[in-house]
Specification:
heterodimer, A: 301 residues, alpha/beta, Rossmann fold, 2 domains, 4-stranded antiparallel beta sheet, 8 helices, 10 strands, B: 426 residues, alpha+beta, Elongation Factor Tu (Ef-tu), domain 3, 3 domains, 6-stranded mixed beta sheet, 25 strands, globular
């Protein structure tokens, strides 16, 4: 029976494509949340596979904090042009201007938490009943308990103690008016799987993931990129280093890795050898032990 | 810089194995998973630091590996696991997905959930306590859910002085019990999750045990034959109709092969219409392929223009599934509100949606003694019984024993939309 061998990446791919098709079939108006990071790039790539030769039957949406790496936005726009897909942008700045969200102040200010406000408003405004996210269960311990099909009440809240059991490959997307779902097609992928898949399929990713020279400074064990809106302490010295991103979020909370990896092979080997989690460099998770759980309950990605 | 060929062989040639863990409270399940992750170097420094800090704060004597798997605040506070958690690790041979399910009595539904997608079940037994009621329950669920392989881990061997006769006695007792169950492949391993014996590394103290370590078993159990490659079943999920000049006449049926294989030239029938046709192509984005098999996701095109939509099933003509509205199944009840005979529910089966009424409940099972109870006429949360339902439209199904995809069904409460029943067609 050896001829019926699928490697682990092909099996994960088959599962994710199945989930994406269930979303298209079970929901009236789904949307794919796109951040320009590798997970959302893979999710979009799998969506194109799932419906080929037809176009992906739902739009993408970027919740833009305004604190992006410029390279991320460039990459996003090029990808949309190449694939003919449509990406809606919703700005955290607008939520702040409308008084719905209040900008954090102080040295560690970030718009990470504020994204939830913009996201929930956008879902309501555009009447999306399902938002596809690139979250993976290996990322963080609260995510490990997340379902593929995650039910949200009319306030967008997640109730971890009261989740629907998920059996076999039968996904229950039934809901009442005003409720919506978050669906995570990459639930069973690990950071390593994502890199291996990018390598196997030769998927294009932003240059930020490869080594480059950048002005950075060191804070609480994390290298952060320098930018105009980054407030620094007097003791924080800006240096130029060879770095790359392991995750791409907004500049204020994306830790950079000192690295000279300039090919996918190098990155995979670096990932295999590394002893710190991907989110270990994420400033947003360091706020408390239950930082992710708390944000998720409120309606975060 | 890596040699590209070796590199590809090393990283792109792994298999996927899904396993679930079952144990009673305090059997050391979380510790075992922590040990597997720790010894296979799947735990990162920052995770380790976080649990070292947490253990210290709680006043634990040694680093509490169980804290790695208890994700939610409520769980850490109460020291329990409240839901199925998924964990990942890989060795050069395989990538593993663990469905870690809690052992409390009231959480049978979580074990059923974790078991539904597993190739292997690990059942933990405390060496000091031996085979308990819960052990019977775990064995029964593994057999009910048709998990192809069961590994019984006799844990806490360090607390019984690593004695061989303790291990042998529990092994005999479990084998006796398993005669009543339907499990194809059972293995036994004496371990100490706390001390690490026979989990990843071979125990130096238990030199009387000559079998493989737990990780060796997980890496080498043959799972390739767990799929059914005989009965061609393709539930149609979605119809692909490109709105583009180039693909003007393209009409493809997207789905994930539930069992069997499909290749161009195959004679197929479409249910429920019964029309027959021939497979024209098996497509993926990158290419049209010569053959596809379970569990691949593909798009099929047919030679004839037939009206096919979601919920239909494309099958190989040589072995047809059962078609009918009166269906008998074993069901595990997952809802807070009990199941009642004559109750109406929504059902999901493959890509098909329907409604049903529960007509009869011949018996329910006492899962601690495996006795049948023919008196009661309803099922409460975590109870298991046999029921007969009638559906509003015909379903195309096989027995669960033969096919875990076309033989499984869920019941949904129509007022709350919650998934309340997990059914395995008899």
């Amino acid at each position: 029976m050896e001829k019926y061998n699928l490697n682990h990446l092909r099996e994960l791919e088959a599962e994710s494509i199945y989930v994406l098709r269930e979303v298209a079939a079970q929901f009236e108006k789904p949307v794919l949340l796109f951040s320009g990071g590798k997970d959302s790039i893979i999710m979009f790539y799998l969506a194109r596979k799932a419906f080929w030769p037809a176009k992906v039957p739902f739009p993408l949406m970027h919740i833009d904090t305004g604190h992006n790496f410029p390279e991320t936005l460039e990459f996003r726009d090029q990808l949309m042009e190449k694939t003919g897909a449509k990406c809606i942008a919703r700005l955290v700045q607008d939520s702040i201007d409308q008084g719905k969200a209040v900008e954090e102040t102080g040295i560690n200010a970030s718009r990470n938490v504020l994204q939830t406000v913009t996201l929930l408003d956008a879902l309501e405004e555009l009447k999306f009943d399902c938002a596809l996210g690139g979250g993976r269960r290996d990322e963080e311990k609260a995510r490990a308990k997340e379902r593929f099909f995650s039910h949200r009440d009319e306030f967008g809240q997640w109730d971890p103690k009261n989740q629907r059991p998920e059996l076999w490959n039968l996904f229950n997307g039934k809901k009442k008016m005003g409720e919506h779902f978050r669906v995570f097609p990459l639930s069973n992928w690990t950071e390593m799987d994502v890199w291996q898949y990018i390598y196997m399929e030769d998927v294009e990713i932003p240059d930020l993931y490869f080594t480059h020279k950048r002005k950075v400074f060191y804070r609480d064990g994390v290298w952060l990129a320098d930018a105009d809106f980054m407030e620094k302490k007097d003791s924080e010295e800006v240096l130029e280093k060879d770095v790359r991103c392991r995750t791409i979020g907004d500049i204020t909370c994306t830790g950079l890795t000192l690295s000279t990896a300039n090919s996918l092979e190098d990155i995979i080997q670096e990932t295999a050898a590394t002893r710190v989690t991907e989110r270990g460099g994420r400033y947003d998770d360091k706020r408390s032990e239950a930082a992710m759980e708390d944000r998720k309950k409120e309606g975060y990605f | 810089m890596a040699d590209t060929k070796d590199f590809q062989k090393g990283y792109l040639n792994m298999e996927l194995l899904r396993f679930t863990t079952a144990g009673s409270v305090d059997d050391g399940k979380s510790t075992l998973i922590g040990r597997l992750l720790y010894d296979s170097k799947a735990i990162f420094e920052d995770q380790m630091e976080a649990i070292e800090k947490a253990s210290e704060q709680k006043g634990d004597e040694h680093v509490n590996l169980a804290l790695l798997t208890d994700g939610l605040r409520a769980e850490r506070e109460q020291g329990i696991t409240i839901d199925v958690a998924y964990r990942y690790f890989a060795t050069p041979k395989r990538k593993f997905i663990i469905a870690d399910t809690p052992g409390h009595v009231q959480y049978t539904r979580n074990m059923v959930t974790g078991a539904s997608t597993a190739n292997v079940a690990l059942i933990l037994v405390d060496a000091r306590l031996g085979v308990l009621e819960q052990t019977i329950r775990h064995g029964y669920i593994a057999s009910l859910l048709k998990i192809p392989h069961v590994i019984v881990c006799i844990n806490k061997m360090d607390l019984v002085d690593y004695k061989e006769d303790v291990f042998t006695e529990i092994q005999e007792k479990f084998k006796e019990l398993s005669v009543k169950l339907d499990i194809q492949d059972i293995r036994f391993v004496p371990i100490s999750a706390l001390k690490g014996d026979n989990v990843v590394d071979r125990s130096e103290i238990m030199d009387w045990y000559e079998g493989p370590t737990l990780l060796y078993l997980l890496e080498n159990i043959h799972v390739n034959n767990d799929y059914n490659y005989v009965d061609g079943r393709f539930p149609v999920q979605y119809v692909v109709r490109p709105q583009a000049e180039k693909y003007h006449d393209y009409r493809g049926y997207a789905g994930r092969i539930a069992s069997g294989t499909f290749q161009p030239g195959d004679k197929v029938a479409v249910l429920p219409s019964g029309f027959t046709s021939t497979v024209k192509s098996v497509d993926t984005m990158n290419e049209s392929v010569d053959m596809a098999f379970a569990p691949q996701s593909v798009v099929l095109t047919l030679d004839d223009d037939i009206d096919i939509s979601r919920g239909d099933m494309i099958v190989k003509e040589n072995k047809m599934p059962d078609v009918g509205q009166d269906i008998e199944m074993m069901i595990c009840w997952l809802g807070e509100t009990p199941m009642v005979v004559n109750g109406k529910y929504s059902v999901k089966h493959t890509s098909s949606d329907a409604r049903c009424i529960v007509k009869e409940m011949p018996f329910k099972i006492n899962i601690n003694t495996l006795e049948q109870n023919r008196e009661d006429k309803g099922l409460a949360l975590n109870e298991i019984g046999k029921i007969k339902i009638r559906t509003t439209k015909p379903l195309f199904y096989d027995s669960y024993r033969r096919n875990r995809i076309t033989g499984s069904i869920i019941l949904i409460d129509e007022s709350t939309n919650r998934t309340v029943g997990a059914g395995m067609i008899v």
